[in-house]
User: Which sequence fits this backbone?
C-alpha cells in the first residue's frame, strides 16, 4: 500500500489515542468531527479474485456499507438512506445494478433499500424470516447472489436479531475459496451485535444463546483468512467493545474478540454478552419498524419540512423540541427559551434519537446552512423537522435567554472555597467512575430530563459537566425544559479541567479507600515499581504468545471500545483493585491505561497482594499507538482511485476451507449442540 493509504489508516485510528477526555468521532459521545464524517466516504477497496469490494463509511453513525463490484455488475450491501454516493459510483464506473442486500432490519439508521429499488428498479434481497412488508426476494441458508464473477453465499446467523444474515464472498470459479465475510451486525471487529434490541418478542438471553450457536456452528468454521467486513465500527451503539478498525479476519477475531473467549461455555458466554450493555436509544425500535415496513421516499433536494416565521404558542409544549444546531458558545450567549443544543458538528443523529421522543415535533434552528445539513442528517434516523432560521427569529423580536459558561478555574476556586453550586456530571456512569473532577453527582444525559427534578432543587444553580461541553451544553437545555432556573455548563468540560492541572478524584480501592490520581508518584513509592513492558514487547507477546497472558485496559469503557491493544478486556480500575479474582492465576496480567500512570499505580498495588506476575505497559495506549500501530498496514486494502499492480493485494487461496456443518452427536444427530461445560470459564 502506498503512503496515502497509511495516512488514511492512521487518521481512521488515531482519534482513539488522544488524552483521556479528548473526543473523537469513533466515540459515541463525540463532541466534534470534520465535515467529511457527515457524508459517505470511500475508505477502503478490498481485492478478491476477479472482483472487488468498496467500503463506504458514514462516520457520524459509525456505519459501513459496501459495493460488491465485478465484471460490470454491482450489488450494494446495507445501504444508508441517502443513496446518491452509491449511484454516483456506479455511474462513474459504468456499472449495472444487480440489487440491494440487507443483512437484517437495522435499528440505528433508516436503510436505503427502498431508495435503491426506486432508483435502480432492481430487487431487494432480504431474509426469509425478516417479516419484510416491502417487495423483496426472500433468501435463506445456502442461497446465492451472483455479481459478475463473485458469488455471495447466504448463511443465517441469528443472535443480534432472529433474522440476521451474513454472506461469504467467493470467486465464482472456486466457491470453496472463502475470501470475505459480509457480517452485518452479527460479528464486529472486537465485538458482537447486541442481543437486546428485540423488545418483548425475544429475550436478550435467547438471542445471546442463538449467537453462541451462530459462532460455534457457522462463523467459527469460516476460513481464518476470510476478511470480516461489518456494518458498524467503533462508536456504534449496536454493539460493545468495537475496535476502531474497518475490517478484521476470522482468525484475528478468534484471538482477540473478548466475547469469543467464552465460546466454549454457553452460560458464561451469555452472562458476559449481557453484561454492561447500555440502554438502547428509544429511536432504535422505530427505525427497525420503518426498515421492516419499507421507508417512504425522501426528496433529498428538499429535505426540509415547514419553514416557520414565529414560535408563538409552540415553545412551552412538552411534545415540541427546538433543536439548536449551533455550537455551545453561541448557544450559551443567546438561545431560544427551552431549546436544546445538539450541535451539528457532534453526533446529531444519535443524540437526537436518544433525547427526543420519536413522535415529538422537531423544530431546527441555526443558520440556513446548518439547518439544511441537519434536516438531511435527521432523515437518516427517521426524523422529519420543521425549522426557523435563528437570525429570522431574532429579527422578528423573538425572546432569548442566555446561560453563561463557568470556567474550570472559577469552578475549582468555588469548590476550594466551599461555595460551589451542585455539580452534575452528565457522562455515563463508567466515565464518571473512571475519572471525576470532585465529589459530584452523576445523572447521565439520557435520563437527565426525567430524573433531574427528583434529585435536584429547581431554584438552585446547577453546573453541568461532561468531557468537552458538548453534552453539558445539551444538559443546560434539558434542565431548563425541566423547570430549572439557573443551569450552566463548564467551559471546555473535563478536558479543560485536566489541561489546567486541577486534581481528579478518586479511584476506589478496597484496601486503602481511595487512590488519588494526583498523588501517583507518592503511591508508586509506597508500593514499589512493578515490572514494566514496553510496547514492542507487548506486540511480540500478542503475536507469538497468544493465550499465555491477559491484558486489561482500565481506561473508561467508551475509550476502550474506540481502540485497544488486541485482546485487551475493559475493566474498571475499582474492580481491578477490589476483585480478588484478578489476584488468582499463573499467567501474567498486563495492565494498560492511557499514558502508563494509573496502570503503574494499579500494578504496584496488585503486585504486593499476589504471586501472580503483574506488569504495566510503559507509556500506555498512547505509546503503543505511537510505537506499534502506526507501522501497521492491513493487507488487501486500496485507497479510492488506486490501481493495484499486477498480482498485488489479491487474497491468497491457501488454507481456505469450506463452511462445514455442525458435527452430529451420538445422542441426537439431528440437533447437534456444543458440549456444555460446568459453570465458569
Assistant:
Amino acid at each position: 500500500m502506498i503512503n496515502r493509504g497509511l495516512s488514511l489508516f492512521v487518521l481512521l485510528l488515531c482519534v482513539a489515542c488522544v488524552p483521556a477526555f479528548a473526543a473523537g468521532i469513533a466515540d459515541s459521545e463525540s463532541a466534534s468531527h470534520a465535515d467529511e464524517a457527515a457524508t459517505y466516504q470511500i475508505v477502503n477497496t478490498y481485492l478478491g479474485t476477479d472482483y472487488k469490494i468498496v467500503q463506504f463509511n458514514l462516520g457520524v453513525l459509525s456505519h459501513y456499507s459496501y459495493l460488491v463490484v465485478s465484471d460490470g455488475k454491482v450489488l450494494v450491501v446495507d445501504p444508508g438512506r441517502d443513496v446518491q454516493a452509491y449511484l454516483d459510483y456506479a455511474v462513474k464506473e459504468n456499472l449495472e445494478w444487480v440489487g440491494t442486500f440487507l443483512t437484517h432490519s437495522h435499528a440505528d439508521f433508516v436503510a436505503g433499500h427502498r431508495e435503491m429499488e426506486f432508483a435502480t428498479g432492481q430487487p431487494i434481497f432480504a431474509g426469509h424470516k425478516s417479516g419484510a412488508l416491502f417487495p423483496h426476494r426472500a433468501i435463506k441458508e445456502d442461497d446465492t447472489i451472483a455479481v459478475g464473477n463473485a458469488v455471495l453465499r447466504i448463511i443465517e446467523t441469528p443472535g443480534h436479531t432472529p433474522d440476521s444474515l451474513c454472506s461469504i464472498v467467493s470467486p465464482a470459479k472456486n466457491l470453496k475459496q472463502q475470501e470475505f465475510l459480509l457480517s452485518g451486525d452479527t460479528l464486529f471487529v472486537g465485538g458482537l451485535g447486541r442481543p437486546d434490541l428485540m423488545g418483548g418478542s425475544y429475550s436478550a438471553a435467547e438471542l445471546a444463546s442463538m449467537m453462541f450457536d451462530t459462532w460455534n456452528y457457522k462463523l467459527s468454521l469460516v476460513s481464518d483468512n476470510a476478511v470480516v467486513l461489518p456494518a458498524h465500527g467503533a462508536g456504534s451503539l449496536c454493539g460493545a467493545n468495537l475496535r476502531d478498525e474497518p475490517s478484521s479476519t476470522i482468525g484475528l477475531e478468534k484471538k482477540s474478540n473478548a466475547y469469543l473467549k467464552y465460546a466454549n461455555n454457553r452460560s458464561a458466554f451469555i452472562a458476559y454478552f449481557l453484561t454492561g450493555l447500555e440502554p438502547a436509544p428509544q429511536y432504535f425500535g422505530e427505525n427497525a419498524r420503518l426498515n421492516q415496513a419499507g421507508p417512504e421516499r425522501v426528496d433529498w433536494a428538499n429535505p426540509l419540512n415547514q419553514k416557520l416565521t414565529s414560535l408563538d404558542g409552540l415553545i412551552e409544549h412538552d411534545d415540541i423540541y427546538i433543536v439548536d444546531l449551533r455550537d455551545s458558545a453561541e448557544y450559551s450567549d443567546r438561545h431560544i427559551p427551552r431549546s436544546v443544543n445538539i450541535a451539528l458538528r457532534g453526533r446529531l443523529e444519535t443524540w437526537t434519537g436518544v433525547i427526543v421522543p420519536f413522535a415529538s415535533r422537531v423544530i431546527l434552528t441555526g443558520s440556513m446552512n446548518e439547518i439544511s445539513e441537519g434536516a438531511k442528517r435527521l432523515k437518516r434516523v427517521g426524523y422529519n423537522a420543521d425549522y426557523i432560521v435563528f437570525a429570522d427569529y431574532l429579527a422578528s423580536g423573538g425572546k432569548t435567554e442566555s446561560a453563561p459558561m463557568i470556567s474550570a478555574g472559577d469552578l475549582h476556586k468555588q469548590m476550594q472555597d466551599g461555595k460551589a453550586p451542585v455539580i452534575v456530571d452528565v457522562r455515563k456512569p463508567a466515565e464518571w467512575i473512571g475519572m471525576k473532577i470532585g465529589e459530584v453527582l452523576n445523572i447521565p444525559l439520557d435520563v437527565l430530563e426525567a430524573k433531574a427534578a427528583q434529585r435536584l432543587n429547581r431554584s438552585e444553580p446547577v453546573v453541568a459537566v461532561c468531557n468537552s461541553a458538548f453534552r453539558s451544553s445539551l444538559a443546560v437545555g434539558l434542565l431548563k425544559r425541566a423547570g430549572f432556573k439557573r443551569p450552566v455548563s463548564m467551559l471546555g468540560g473535563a478536558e479543560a479541567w485536566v489541561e489546567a492541572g486541577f486534581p481528579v478524584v478518586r479511584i476506589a480501592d478496597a484496601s486503602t479507600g481511595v487512590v488519588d490520581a494526583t498523588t501517583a508518584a507518592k503511591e508508586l513509592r509506597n508500593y514499589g515499581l512493578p515490572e514494566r513492558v514496553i510496547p514492542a514487547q507487548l506486540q511480540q507477546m500478542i503475536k507469538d504468545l497468544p493465550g499465555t497472558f491477559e491484558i486489561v485496559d482500565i481506561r473508561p469503557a467508551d475509550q476502550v471500545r474506540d481502540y485497544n491493544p488486541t485482546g485487551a478486556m475493559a475493566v474498571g480500575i475499582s474492580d481491578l483493585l477490589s476483585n480478588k479474582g484478578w489476584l488468582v492465576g499463573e499467567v501474567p496480567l498486563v495492565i494498560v491505561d492511557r499514558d502508563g500512570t494509573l496502570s503503574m499505580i494499579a500494578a504496584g498495588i496488585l503486585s504486593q497482594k499476589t504471586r501472580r506476575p503483574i506488569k504495566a505497559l510503559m507509556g500506555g495506549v498512547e505509546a503503543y499507538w505511537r510505537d506499534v500501530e502506526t507501522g501497521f498496514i492491513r493487507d488487501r486494502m486500496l485507497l479510492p482511485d488506486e490501481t493495484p499492480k499486477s498480482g498485488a493485494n489479491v487474497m491468497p487461496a491457501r488454507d481456505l476451507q469450506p463452511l462445514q456443518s455442525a458435527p452430529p452427536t451420538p445422542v441426537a444427530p439431528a440437533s447437534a449442540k456444543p458440549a456444555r461445560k460446568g459453570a465458569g470459564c
About this structure: The CA atoms of residues 167 and 485 lie 55 Å apart. The longest helix spans residues 204-217.
